[in-house]
Amino acid sequence: MTAKFVKQLLTAGFVLGTLFGAAAIPARADQSLLNVSYDPTREFYKDFNAAFAEKWKTDNGETVTIETSHGGSGKQARAVIDGLAADVVTLALEADVDAIAAKTGKIPADWKSRLDNNSAPYTSTIVFLVRKGNPKGIKDWGDLVKDDVAVITPNPKTSGGARWNFLAAWAWAKQANGGDDAKAEEFVTTLYKHVPVLDTGARGATTTFVQREQGDVLLSWENEAYLALNELGAGEFEIVTPSVSIKAEPSVALVDGNVDAKGTRKVAEAYLQYLYSDVGQKLAAKHYFRPAKPELADKADLARFADVKLATIDDFGGWKEAQAKFFADGGLFDKIYQPAQ
Amino acid sequence: MAHDTLQPDRVTSEGPLARGLLIATSLLFLLLILAMPLLAVFSEALRKGLPAFLDALKDEETFAAIRLTLLVAGISVPLNLVFGVAAAWTIAKFEFRGKAILSTLIDLPFSVSPVISGLVFVMLFGAQGYFGPLLASYGLQIIFAVPGLVLATIFVTFPFVARELIPLMQEQGNADEEAALSLGASGWQTFWHVTLPNIKWGLLYGVLLCNARAMGEFGAVSVVSGHIRGQTNTMPLQVEILYNEFNFMAAFAVAALLALLALVTLVLKSLLEYRFSAEIAASRRH
Amino acid sequence: MTLTSSKGWQFRQPSVLPGFRWTLGFTLVWLTLIVLVPLTGLFLKSSTLGWDAFWTLALEKRTLQALKISFGTAFLAALANVVFGTLLAWVLVRYRFPGKRIIDAMVDLPFALPTAVAGIALTTLYASKGWIGSLFAPLGIKIAFTPLGIVIALVFVGLPFVVRTVQPVLEELDREVEEAAATLGANRFQTIFRVLLPGLAPAVLTGFSLAFARGVGEYGSVIFIAGNVPFKSEIAPLLIVIKLEEFNYPAATAIAAVMLLLSFGLLFVINLIQAWSRRRYGYGA
Hints:
Chain A contains 15 helices and twelve strands. Chain A is of the alpha/beta class. Chain A has a four-stranded mixed β-sheet, sandwiched between helices. A four-stranded mixed β-sheet of chain A has the order 6-7-5-8. Chain A is globular. Chain B is an all-alpha fold. Chain B has 15 helices and no strands. Chain B starts with a helix and ends with a helix. The relative contact order of chain B is 0.13. By secondary structure, chain C is mainly alpha-helical. Chain C has 13 helices and no strands. In chain C, helix 1 packs antiparallel against helix 13, helix 3 crosses helix 10 and helix 12 runs antiparallel to helix 13. The longest helix of chain C has 34 residues. The two termini of chain C are 27 Å apart. Chains in contact: A-B, A-C, B-C. At the B-C interface, helix 2, helix 4, helix 5, helix 6 and helix 8 of B face helix 1, helix 3, helix 4, helix 5 and helix 6 of C.
């Protein structure tokens, strides 16, 4: 009984293994591309990939399958550095693409100038999501540090979106105080005292605010905020656009080292170019990204974006400088939480 | 088992009041820590009714995730089964120097943060890792492919079978085996006919646990997966993806499936044990 | 390895049982391949940081605080699991009540449920607007997004370790010993504390150490419920992830190495205590 029993157990394991081993290797299409992206782009790329595959089929008669991988921007960049064979990367931060370029040499250092608009086919900005009727009367950044307001934002150390949140707050405080950096630092420090939960990613923060009902206001990507509004209960939340925000430029780049090894350069380049086409721009606008070429997008979609004064990353001296000053080890963000000596 | 053969009485059991109190306390604890989360998972999964639940599972990517999970568990569990028996035999049956260290090393994967369990393999086999360039020159992909998932899973579930068997075999002692050997049985015969029947249920148990954890592991697998949709996502990773797409119902449906899988195998094991309880009791009473 | 034998002292006590070489050999090979080589890689990587940088990082206030939170909450959770886990094992082995089989099966749930799902489910329940959290909120007790929430998550994660190590030993325990104690005039209380619990001690200790070790490194379930505020509810594994996001592998592995050494030390001490108590109470002899 026992010997048989163990034998059966073993065979069952191995049979299952081989059986599903064969099944898990998918049938290869003519060509396949891997787009390694960050969290809030899922819905957009789902539509865009279908559109591109169709276009490629009509133009070239080839079937192209586009595989996607989503996750936190930094984590995704790390995966590509460690050997994930991405043909293109579409990440939240220029700094993440720079890191791939620097650590692997698979992307040339001048990648940013290879595509229009600093290689950002769409941009976004940071807005507030508040509960229905805006009970705490939140209109602008200054209202976030009122005594009874709790702010939900993810951790800038682990979330790309959170870094844009931080910079947007800084930009507002600096302008409101006549360009005084010390005042801006003071404001941001106070702001983070109002944050009860630091999620590791933008999507986590959104669920904390929406599902867990924590906090009074969520600092969020504009497209994320609209998505939350549509998907998670229209009428329960409102979007508030602050007087000043930041122009967030998610970067896209071809991973030369990988496309050359896989022989997919042509289709990968076409894929990125297609983001700038009327189809790509229309889809971006439809998914609440601000298109790089608004003239190509639908007027109705564009009308949904509120006018807001946008600071840019250049106001902070570019990503390299901002990263070092604010978010690096021992940077300003770390100081906020340093207990009094 | 014991209560089948003995009437509970005051000397070897507690009074009805104490018994009731103990049962009630442990049930309340279970309710707060285990049952409620489980309930929350199922109530989310079935929020829109059973048909919607089944519909949510009918997704090509979810199917791919289920297949991949079965594949990874199907490879890792048998390997750890063989290892677990060997390790338990060495540690439980013999006294030797350095046993405490060996025993501690076997437990070590439990104390390694899942983030690190995945990372160590990335550092070995990733493009920047110690063996990365070598592997790349042969065109071998370990990380962000099935082998990496298997390695991380084996690492995480490494101690389960051994951990289940060691205390059991220590309790049972060597007397049975020594008797068999003195009666002229060979080493293998002793193992198959004496030891294995004694540890059979513990072994099955360890395998089930190992399997459950192999299928449910999230952290370590997440690091080595690459998250390519429909290709390198296991069920737990698929749960995360669906959750992050605000598709809460589908996310909890897949999670419920994992929980259900565990519950069914474990209830099945209980039933088997019940059916063969006479045999087990006999083997334990010698 | 430290296990090589040399003249002058005896590597192992003689035994008539066969298979020592074979099983020890296989165990060592597999252990080396799956656990030791990867972990050596970890230590090698952390050593590229340099001795000074390593200590600066390890002794940084924030690192120390995170380690304190991780080890403290894991300790409390393991302690809670020892009490309730042993009780549960007792109830499951000794008593009969309706639904026992289901409950027995349910104990393994934390192994099977992906940790992230557990984290999400627990946060849903214990947040101030959740089913359980809302019961405590009026009392001014916040559970989710505080260290208390971390403890809850770790109790969930560690429970099966204690139950499943204690349960089989409890089943093996001879009732005759209890009867003998009773015959000799011990009351039930004395029997439990003088006779039963000492016999269970090695298993309980194993369960404790496993639950503790698992809790220290846990990430998936904790991250949802912790709140992650530095110095308050930031766990050490999160610090590792933060270092990784900065592409700082040496620093990440250094923190991991510190955690690993601490856990290994603790596990080792517990294994020694266990071996000692087994010798003392004569089990496995």
